[in-house]
Amino acid sequence: MATTTAPSSPSEPGDADELTAERLRPVLGAVTVARDTALSGGLYNSVRLLELTDGRRLILKTAPLASAPALAHEQGLLGTEALFHRLAAGAGVQAPTVLHHQPSGRGAPAEWLLLSYLDGATWDAARDWLTPADRTVLRRRLGECLARVATVTGPAYGYPQSAAGLSTPDWPSAFTGMLRAVLADAGRFGVTLPAPAAEFAGLPVRFGHRLAEVRRPALVHFDAWEGNIVLARDVDGSWSLAGLIDGERAFFGDPLAELVGLDPLGAAEDDADLMAGYRSVTPGLTVDTGARVRLALYRVYLALVMRVEAAPRAYGGDFASWLDTWSADRLTEQLAVLDTLRAS
Questions:
Q1: What is the DSSP letter of 248?
Q2: pTM score, two decimals?
Q3: How far apart are the C-alpha atoms of 217 and 321, rounded to whole Å?
Q4: Dihedrals φ, ψ of 51, to 5°?
Q5: Residues 123, 3 contacting (CB under 8 angstroms)
Q6: By CB neighbour count within 10 A (0-12 exposed, 13-18 middle, 19+ buried), where does 277 fall?
Q7: Of 15, 203, 222, 245, which has the fewest Cβ atoms less than 10 A away?
Q8: 240 with 234: CB under 8 angstroms?
């Protein structure tokens, strides 16, 4: 999953500066970069903060080379991010402005994306300064924001980039494809699972009737955790939601999946403030048995993605150990939840 980015260190002049200049020139014309800073924290794309002499600040994101190991759905992710930001902005949600997107191909060995910079601090970076009252207001605003995102309807279900081959006319088949793709990735990268792959692969068959309850391909960010939410401090000292970033993992599907992506370690549907904000835009949202089944399915999917991506990313150290234990426990837990719901 994507993570927040934080300042690292300015780059030394060299090939990277020339490459940046080559990319900016056709898009912005004759501009000068006063400061080029690598931002740390991202686990997939490289991200740089470009400060121009005219005062503008931009974000330049570059994907790994197309030949780099990746999960099946990780095709054209920056194209997905560009699409998400444009659609979200059209729905009234604050997001970076897309200045240019360049797919990989002839003359561009790696995909890249140029965005405006959102002023502020990510929620996780500002967490220690937030009061309980601040958090209540912000969670309500976040619920409203994500409900607006979900008002966008896609042309099909699944991941929008055709190269991934994971887009279909209905949600049961799209989710089945998404789930089985990450299971195939587990086999390809030699990732062990806490239960047989066939048990996970059979979940959409067992619960297909619940997946079929989704009737519209809603836009889902699926990574709106606190590291991908930008906050701004107002003149009176209060905090406001400045926007969503890192929409590269977006897909079209069940809007309930957003609750899983924004709170991968918990259960956002039990957050009264968040849900009140969401229902202020979409009053009809209910968390009934069918919804809880689907939430458990999406938690299985997310835990599988996080577990399997550790292999091509070559995670190490304490984080890798934590992720291995957490994902195994989460998968086992959610399988048990699904067994209980099936029996109810």
A1: G
A2: 0.92
A3: 36
A4: -105, 115
A5: no
A6: buried
A7: 15
A8: yes
